[in-house]
Amino acid sequence: MYKMLRQRTKKALLLPDVVICFCLIFAGGCMVGPDYIPYEMEVSKNWSDTARLHGGAEPNMVQWWASFNDPTLTSLVERALKSNLDLKQARSRIRQARAARWSAEGGLWPSADVTGSQSRSRTSTGVKSNLYKTGLDASWEMDIFGGQRRDIEAATADVQAAVEDLRDVWVTLAAEIAVNYIELRGFQQEIVILQRNLDTQKKTAELTRTRFQGGFVGALDVANADALVATTAAQLPPLESSAQQTIHNLGVLLGAEPSALGGELNFTSAVPSAPLRAPVGVPSELLRRRPDIRRAESQIHAATARIGVATADLFPKFTLSGSVGFQSHYADQLVNWNKRIWSMGPSASWNIFDAGRVRANIETRKSLQEQSILTYQSTVLIAMQEVEDAMVALAKEQEHYDALQKAVNFNRKAVELATTLYTQGETDFLNVLSAQRSLYSSEDALVSSRRTISTNLVALYKALGGAWENTAVAEIP
């Protein structure tokens, strides 16, 4: 029967070929190893305290920085998202992951090589001859047990993890730009307050000197007034240094030289603020929105698929190979139909003893999968903590700000009253000195609190995984 089949087809089809073909047909859909099931982690239904933050509403994360209504901040973020070097590295890692997937996909297809050789030999009788060969060799390892398809599955999950890494860099970068910009405006406002208080203290010192010359006060009051002026002036250089260093940070974040933004940002502006009642959604939404959580989930998928890659080594491997070409003892007769040669046939290999290497590799992959699940759980818990911390910090800092605002108002009245009484000779200079110190301290703390509120709001947007939807991942070459 087999001989008749060969005669009818006029092909060198061997019986093992038929067996392998049937194996491929019936086992082509078989893939060893566990199938990936999306991991679900139980989280609470609500945040601990969202009364002040509209916790039940779905947050709008697209361009959250625009809610600060600061054109300079918006411009800096948008420019950074195009030129930042960390983002460019993340895009390169996506291209690397895609190339690795293409390489894995190539394992499903046959491979072919063009060959050519020339050799000269001599027999024991002294006869010398040349042998010329050229042709095409092809082979195909059939993925009957799904090891290669599992490898492609893992590589695809790696691509998704790289995409989520880009999104995570995107989220982090937008937050870093906003925080540095808010810090810069805070330093500039502190400089304004310091200079204003310094001017007031200088006037008080002049007043004290005049009263000293008139014999109304002693030299101690003049010394105290001059000491206060000098102490306040000494705080200016560190603030100016911090402001310049923050400008340098922003320049590097934009992928430019540190001083590139000096001319643009050296002017003084108010600390940007945004509505505090930002909706935060519910914890379950966080699992689908935070890029680092999504990346950890993709890593579980990749680790699960690689268990199948390792498991496939327990089973035999089947290969179809063949070659066609020409062979001749004379170079000018090489390409001649009568000189053609060919061969084809299947082969199989099965590693039946490896001292436990394959099974050890499988256990290694299972351990890596377990580690990726634990990493996912840790990432979720940390993400939830970041949101909870940001909400608490934002709410409590607002209370702090309200109290400082009252303190500033009272201290301003105290300075006015102490100065008036001192001029009239109804109080000593220590009261004026104390009032001015308290006013400067409370005004400086008020600006710092305003800055902290805005940075806490940025931290909340970041913790919620804000604005990665803008990443044009599909357009990355």
Furnish the topology, listing elements before pairings.
Layout (H helix, E strand, L loop, with lengths): L1 H8 L5 H13 L43 H13 L1 H22 L4 E12 L5 E15 L4 H67 L5 H15 L2 H18 L8 H4 L17 H7 L1 H21 L5 E12 L11 E10 L7 H67 L5 H35 L14
Antiparallel strand pairs: 1-2, 2-3, 3-4
Describe the structure.
This protein is an alpha+beta fold and 477 residues long. The protein has two domains: 366 residues, Outer membrane efflux proteins (OEP); 67 residues, Single Sheet (Outer membrane efflux proteins (OEP)). Helices cover 61% and strands 10% of the residues. The protein has twelve helices and four strands; from the N terminus they run ααααββααααααββαα. A four-stranded antiparallel beta sheet has the order 1-2-3-4, with helices on one face. Strand 1 and strand 2 form a beta hairpin. Helix 10 runs antiparallel to helix 11.
**What is the CATH H-level superfamily of the largest domain?**
Outer membrane efflux proteins (OEP)
Query: How large is the radius of gyration?
Result: 38 Å
Helix run count: 12
Strand content: 5-15%
CATH architecture of the largest domain: Up-down Bundle
CATH class of the largest domain: Mainly Alpha
Kindly state the percentage of residues in helix: 55-70%
User: What gap, in angstroms, lies between the N and C termini?
Assistant: 55 Å
Overall spatial form? elongated
Largest sheet: 4 strands, antiparallel
Let me know the number of strands.
Answer: 4
Q: Which strand order do you get reading across the main beta sheet? A: 1-2-3-4
Q: For this entry, what is the oligomeric state of its chains?
A: single chain
Stated plainly, the CATH topology of the largest domain is called Outer membrane efflux proteins (OEP)
Mean of pLDDT: 85
Q: Output the structural class.
A: alpha+beta
Along the chain, the helix and strand elements come as: HHHHEEHHHHHHEEHH
